[in-house]
Amino acid sequence: MSASRTFGIAMRANTTVAPRRCSHEPVDEAALLITCLRGLPCIVPEDTNWELLLDLARENGVLLLLQQALLALGADVPGFFRDAAAECRAAAERLAGELECLLRGFQGLHVEALAFKGPTLALALYGDVTLRSSNDLDLLVRHDDFLRCEVWLINQGFIALGPASEHDRRFVRDGLLVELHFELAAYRDFPLDVDGIWRRSRPADFCGQFVRAMSDIDLVLYLCAHGLKHGFSRLIWILDVARSLHGWHRNAYEEMMRQARRQGLEPHLLIGCEVVRSMFPQQLPEALDAVIIMSPKAAKRARHAAARLFSENLEVVINDFRSFYLQAEPGALKRWRYRFGYLGPTYTDYLWARSHRIYPGLMVILRPFRLLHKYGLGRVWRVLFPEQ
After folding, report:
1. CB burial class (10 A; 0-12, 13-18, 19+) of residue 297?
2. Which CATH number fits domain 88-214: 1.50.10.10, 3.40.50.720, 3.30.460.40, 3.30.365.10?
3. Judging by beta carbons within 10 Å of its beta carbon (0-12, 13-18, 19+), is residue 316 exposed, middle or buried?
4. Mean pLDDT by 10 residues, the chain (388 residues)
5. In this record, what's one Pfam family (predicted)?
């Protein structure tokens, strides 16, 4: 169940007291999950559907965080729930061990790697590599080092899953998926300044291995962009943004806003902040809120876009980050540039052209027709011209 659906049904219950029973929808368990993650006091009902609560926590990537909150409440957690949490913790520990080995190998190549998401993010935001579960490892290396790292991974028994994309290449070995990046994302989607991220990055330590970490501001901007790309459809992505914003001085929040504007990421940042406000209002710092209200028009647009993420009318809402960006971007010229960029050919379009022996230059014309064929006129229109 997505974060938007979980939030929608939870809000129909009083999340500060023992939830009421409902025979048709999992209102009680969703409300309990939200309340625990908010850190609010509550009573865990004796008739809690623990199987359903476990499924909700797994789907939203917050099982160990939920268990931590339940133990703090003194809840009588059933054995199968504890076993599932232990299995999740063990998987996270194994992934951390794999990352440690990769970093050691890259050090042997004299390659600096910037680890993001996964165990390093868990350690940075939650203080424990096991508290944030992940399914793969993401490593950013510089363009000049990418080929050497590819060769090294293959020599270590990894198998490449296809050619490199516009920003990464995926490798797998014994079920372990490694995404080796030379860019954080396709630039047409998010204008993340990877060279600037490298310059602003800082040295860090992960289990005794050298690694580079994003600056605090870059991490927030990346998490907002990544969460928006996926429609903030998992609670862990919202919690990540909330945790990354803690403990700053007001002048640091102001600098974050300035940097977001310079990079064209202000709508992504503001939507991320408004999503945190909607789901975990207690965790949005007051000093940041004071900075946000200094841009009332941009903040209003972001609130409107964030509200759509939690709409229950799922047949109407198009879960496409482009429409949310266009809804939050205050500049008309930037909105039109973004629309034209969306209609421009992508790396996937060029692969399709090559597989069909079509001259690549024709994709400038064919791209809009491919979009219409795949999504239909109605969806494309709603993405490019969302309700304001």
Report:
1. exposed
2. 3.30.460.40
3. exposed
4. 56 45 60 93 91 95 96 94 97 96 96 95 95 93 97 97 92 96 83 93 95 97 92 93 93 95 92 94 92 91 84 48 74 79 80 86 86 84 77
5. NTP_transf_5
Query: What is the pLDDT, as a whole number, of residue 350?
Result: 82
Give dist(CA 80, CA 276) in Å, integer.
31
Please, are residues 283 and 37 in contact by the beta-carbon 8 Å criterion? no
Q: In the numeric block, which tokens belong to residue 107?
A: 């050090």
Within 230-265, residue ranges assigned H as helices are 235-244, 250-262
In the three-class reduction of DSSP (H, G, I as helix; E, B as strand; rest coil), residue 115 is classed as strand
Report the pLDDT value the prediction gives residue 8, as an integer from 0 to 100. Answer: 55
With beta carbons less than 8 A apart as the criterion, state whether 302 and 266 touch: no
Backbone angles phi, psi at 363, to 5 degrees: -65, -20
The whole-angstrom separation of Cα 74 and Cα 198 is 44
CA distance 257 to 266: 7
What is the end-to-end Cα distance of the chain in Å, rounded? 27
Pairing mode of beta strands 176-181, 136-140 = parallel
> pTM for this structure?
0.85
Give me 245's structure tokens: 């914003």
